[in-house]
Protein: Ribose-5-phosphate isomerase A
Organism: Oceanicella actignis
Amino acid sequence: MAKTLTAADIAKRAAAREAVKLVESGMRLGLGTGSTAAWFVELLGERIREEGLKVTGTPTSERTARLAARLGVPLVTLDEAGWLDLTVDGADEFDAALTLIKGGGGALLQEKIVAVASDRMVVIADETKQVETLGAFPLPVEIVPFGWETTKAIVEEMLEDMDVDGRSSTLRMAKDAPYVTDCGHYILDLHLRRIGDPEDLSGALNAIPGVVENGLFIEIADMAVVGHEDDTATTIEAPDLTEDDEH
Ligand SMILES: O=C(CO)[C@H](O)[C@H](O)COP(=O)(O)O
């Protein structure tokens, strides 16, 4: 029996359906992680089967790799691809500048590595993900397991000097043990409520030795495809902030 789609599923699928139209034969694609990205992979698989579209996919997580393989998307590693034409991925929040919070699904590090190795990064999201100010969604930060409690304390101390409203953090758990990323790291979720200066915060986080990467994607996304509950999608282009197109 076909699964009944929720309003959120319909909106996510609408965004993915619009984004899959951007794919052309010959493209090397970055494949995101999460429920919206999964719609994209599914619709991409459909185009491959029905149109004989020739593409390769570089997955951002083991979860996406399994899904893409099952749907017949030919997979290559990022090193095999070398560089990507287009990456399509979801987001937990995005603002008008297309600064994103990512990592709710625990794949932020590989997602960022893949996104910045792409000519174009397109975010797909349902309309609830669009916010005026980032930070209601807890900011995921990937940290090394060694000395994680000390890293957590240093992160919280650093937050005293940041333009944020909350300063607590929690170690992400999977049942009774810490959640471990595909790269073998832990995730700290920062409960900031409001992020006044994403660039300042991102720089300060990544300067802490135990921090591997944080979930703020700044000037990485080129376009957002926003899905709506009425099964339509609209697009938002990133503001032209830089002189060139390089990420
Ligand atoms: O960053 C991510 C995974 O690390 C996801 O893109 C993000 O969590 C959005 O997920 P979903 O599409 O399920 O709402």
Residues 32-37, 89-92, 102-108, 111 surround ribulose-5-phosphate (CB under 6 Å).
